[in-house]
Amino acid sequence: MGRAVVSGLGVVSALGNDADTFFSRLAQGVSGVTEKSISILGETKTFLCAATDSNPLEEPLKAFKLAESVLQDALKMSHLLDSYKNGERVGLFIGTATGIIPVLESERGLICHINRLKDNSLKPYNGIAEYLTGKLPFKPMFVTTFTSACASSTIALIEAAKMIRKEMLDCVIVIGTEALSSYDFLGFESLGIISKTNIKPFDDDRDGIVLGEGAAAIIIENEESVKKRKIPYLVEIAGGGISNDAYRLATPDPEGTGAAKCMNAALQQSNLSYGAIDYINAHGTGTKLNDRMETKAIKQVFKENSKEIPISSSKSMLGHTRGASGALEGLISILSIVNEFIPPTINYNTPDKECDLDYVPNIGRAAPIQHVMSNSFGFGGHNSSVIFSKVY
């Protein structure tokens, strides 16, 4: 089987709209969190990470536009259009949890566009994929959408790399996208897990998530296709693992059994031992239960090595971007290998005795990195873990 390598990236986020700026701010521990009043919460001020300065609840097509922006940037970086003229053996995989919902929330949007459902442009959840297909100069051979809650775009990455390794496709454009919406605010508020202070993953005083938005594109190709274009490629997607807790709808298995299974599966598919991982980009949401569960799962998988591996949560700076988080954090994992630097977990002040690993508190660190594991877990028991490796 051939190698699945990364040839192009695109990003839009609260920390920047190009890969260099984005990673530089992450490395410095810059927070994208702001405090704003949200009318649907009774004008209560809440913390959030918006990707633009506009009102986050007044742009029903925002997830579409964010995705379009990162698509164009990734295409430019990869010079993809030099090789693929007709879309043959090209895939477009979208990861999103609620990307279409802001459109359906908008009464005006729903009334004006309901008749367009027949041409797929607003068909939940494939509307974003159909929209982006129209922005390409060719029709991709395989177009699909992954909606596995907060694991959506990590699962998209895993499945894309698998199809390339099995020579079913030569190239897959993977995009994770999510915009802030009333649905998200009301849903997470009803669960009582929106932070009243700020997001503090793994800290003993953590009190919940901060909602964020953004998009990332990662173009994955067969190694030979990239070599023919004579362009550099960034990393290899060495393998991935997917599991399901089947525990509770909105609560992970507190013992981390499902999370451990997907991490072990990722190591096995990558042909790596647990001692080979140099950095873990954690799911790290900042909720009491999730951070303790992930810590337990890491200990199960990495055993005596668990205290030696640097682990950090990008959500401490980006907020929780739900279905886009896997693509954004995958992009961070890729850039950590390229730049040989591990971003910190910011807002970490008080250790939790049940979260007792190395979370790279507040200050990032330079380190030689060959293999990075990125975890994404979601409602419904969805678990996913993907491994990125340096290529020589």
Helix-strand category: alpha/beta
Name the overall outline: globular
Number of separate structural domains: 2
Beta-strand fraction estimate: 15-25%
For CATH, the homologous superfamily of the largest domain is named as: Thiolase/Chalcone synthase
Helix content: 25-40%
Largest sheet, strands/sense/barrel: 5 strands, mixed
Integer-rounded radius of gyration: 19 Å
N- to C-terminal separation?
18 Å
How many strands?
15
Instruction: Give the rounded overall mean pLDDT.
Output: 92
Shape-level CATH architecture of the largest domain: 3-Layer(aba) Sandwich
CATH first level of the largest domain: which class?
Alpha Beta
The topology string of helices and strands comes to EHEEHEHHHEHEHEEHEHEHEHHEEEE
Number of helices: 12
Q: Spans of 5+ residues with little confidence (pLDDT < 50)?
A: 109-120
Protein name: Ketosynthase family 3 (KS3) domain-containing protein
Family: Belongs to the thiolase-like superfamily. Beta-ketoacyl-ACP synthases family.
InterPro entries: Beta-ketoacyl_synthase, Ketoacyl_synth_C, Ketoacyl_synth_N, PKS_Beta-ketoAc_synthase_dom, Thiolase-like
Keywords: Transferase
Protein described:
This protein is α/β, with parallel strands linked by helices. It has two domains: 4-229, Peroxisomal Thiolase, Chain A, domain 1 (3-Layer(aba) Sandwich); 238-390, Peroxisomal Thiolase, Chain A, domain 1, CATH 3.40.47.10. Helices cover 31% and strands 22% of the residues. It contains twelve helices and 15 strands. It has helices at residues 19-27, 62-78, 101-105, 107-113, 127-133, 152-165, 182-190, 223-229, 257-270, 288-302, 315-318, 325-339; strands at residues 4-12, 34-38, 44-49, 90-95, 142-146, 171-178, 211-212, 214-222, 235-244, 279-281, 311-312, 341-342, 365-366, 371-378, 382-390. It has a five-stranded mixed beta sheet, sandwiched between helices. α10 links the parallel β10 (279-281) and β11. α9 crosses α10 (288-302). The two termini are 18 Å apart.
